[in-house]
Design goal:
By secondary structure, the protein is α/β, with parallel strands linked by helices. Helix 1 runs parallel beside helix 6 and helix 3 runs parallel beside helix 6. It is built from seven helices and 30 strands. Strand 26 and strand 27 form a beta hairpin. The chain starts with 8 loop residues before the first strand and ends with a strand. The longest helix has 19 residues. The chain binds adenosine monophosphate and magnesium ion. The site of magnesium ion has 5 residues, from loops.
């Protein structure tokens, strides 16, 4: 009889779905107010609405002459210049077009006067004293943004749950929001395990390895909107591991690295199980990162701090906390964070859910792999504009941080592909 497949080892898509499902049930901690200048990367806890129409007046997008487009059909034609409008002009003093053949000199960002419906760019005009010759016709509305075309007063500009990027911050500024209400960053505990692992400041013995995972994870947590809480390195010994896991469960999410493979001293799953963990998966058919573990743990009897998962109406029982056990190989740790941990950190940070984004580009040289695993291999996306292509970085496997540091993306190879030819389109995830 052939061995039965392990039901807790999921395909990449199934594992990702399990994470997204759990992410949809968690909610952020409280909120705080930040200055607009410190709001980049934070997650909005309130909607930002337009306090007036944007633009607040019909806005010229060009330097030129505002006129009636219907007057500029038979060209070239001389127009009478009846005034000039600069950006910020007092609205009570704006000249209005009173009759045919009139034009107003206008600057970019200035209000288009009453009576005009288009702006001819200055490049297509020639000014002669109080007159201007128009050499090119304009369509009604050309080079004019109507009042309220970008947003209406009271309309939504940026929704709750948006991660504040440059454009969102510009919108908040344009709506007069000097401060914003944002979600507090979730605290994400990082617990690295392994008898051979020593701190960065230590001089390692000949077979010891410096802890790099806690630091790469901290960087990824910050990028995902969380606040890393680094715990002491746990030895491969149950009592201390258990004590440190309990300490990690005080945070909003616990990430362990190492100790999830099949070795005799891989104790992480065993200790989590003893604490009553429920596992959503104990492996994913991916490379690197196959032994990745995801679950939640009940927080009874003082095992966790105040729960943050107990959103009203959510089906997560109050006092459960999620954990990930990531494989210790440094590249596996980095890849599994991006694939599986990030959605949960983002949800705890209050972000609206989003799908993993794949780009597509051409493969520079053939790839041959065994089927059965979805692979995420470090690669370099290069080339210009329409000629971009991607090439795998030669590497020594999932422990090779140096190769991964040279990569700017991961090539994604579907589990059913054995040979991918040079020149084929292939999916990549940027890193
Ligand atoms: P494990 O998943 O515990 O079997 O570890 C797999 C490999 O990753 C081993 O070569 C470990 O030495 C290495 N490793 C585990 N944890 C870390 C860490 N925190 N920093 C760097 N390498 C690690
Ligand atoms: Mg280990």
């Amino acid at each position: 009889m052939s061995p039965q497949p392990d039901p807790s080892v999921l395909s990449f898509e199934e594992a990702r779905r399990a994470v997204e499902e759990q992410a949809s049930r968690v909610s952020p901690n409280g909120t705080e107010t930040v200055d607009l200048l410190n709001a980049a990367g934070r997650v909005l806890a309130e909607p930002v609405d337009a306090d007036r129409d944007i633009p607040p007046f019909p806005r010229s997008t060009r330097d030129g002459y505002a006129l009636r487009s219907g007057d500029a059909r038979q060209l070239p034609r001389m127009f009478k210049v009846i005034g000039e409008i600069r950006a910020g002009e007092n609205p009570d003093l704006l000249p209005a077009l009173a009759g045919p053949g009139q034009a107003v000199s206008i600057m970019t960002g200035a209000p288009v006067p009453v009576g005009a419906d288009a702006v001819v760019m200055v490049e297509y005009t020639s000014r002669q004293g109080h007159r201007v010759e128009i050499a090119r016709s304009v369509a009604p509305g050309e080079n004019v943004v109507p009042q309220g075309a970008e947003a209406r007063a009271g309309g939504l500009l940026v929704d709750r749950g948006a991660r504040l990027n440059d454009a969102a911050i510009a919108l908040a500024a344009s709506a007069g929001r000097a401060t914003l209400n944002v979600y507090q960053r979730p605290r994400i505990a990082v617990l690295t395990t392994g008898d051979e692992i020593v701190g960065v400041e230590a001089t390692p013995g000949p077979t010891q390895i410096r802890n790099s995972n806690s630091y790469s994870l901290a960087a990824q947590i910050v990028a995902a909107g969380g606040e890393p809480v680094l715990l002491p390195i746990a030895p491969d010994e149950t009592a201390t591991l258990r004590r440190l896991i309990e300490q990690g469960l005080q945070s909003d999410l616990l990430i362990l690295t190492g100790g999830v493979s099949m070795g005799r001293y891989d104790l992480v799953e065993q200790v989590l199980a003893e604490l009553g963990a429920e596992f959503f998966f104990t492996g994913a058919k991916i490379q690197p990162g196959r032994p990745v573990v995801f679950g939640r743990i009940p927080c009874g009897a003082g095992t966790c701090g105040a729960g943050t998962l107990a959103r009203q109406g959510a089906s997560v029982p109050p006092g459960h906390k999620h954990f990930f056990g990531l494989p210790g190989n440094p590249v596996s740790t980095m890849v599994t964070f991006e694939l599986f941990v990030r959605p949960l950190v983002e949800a705890l940070a209050g972000m609206a859910p989003r799908k993993l984004a794949f780009l597509h580009t051409r493969l520079a040289s053939e790839i041959r792999v065994k089927t059965g695993l979805t692979r995420f291999l470090p690669a370099i996306l290069s080339g210009e504009f329409e000629k971009s292509q991607v090439q795998l970085v030669p590497w020594q496997g999932s422990g090779d941080i140096a190769a991964t540091a040279r990569a700017n993306c991961y090539v994604v190879i579907p589990p059913d592909r054995e040979i991918i030819a040079a020149g084929e389109w292939i999916a990549v995830i940027m890193r």
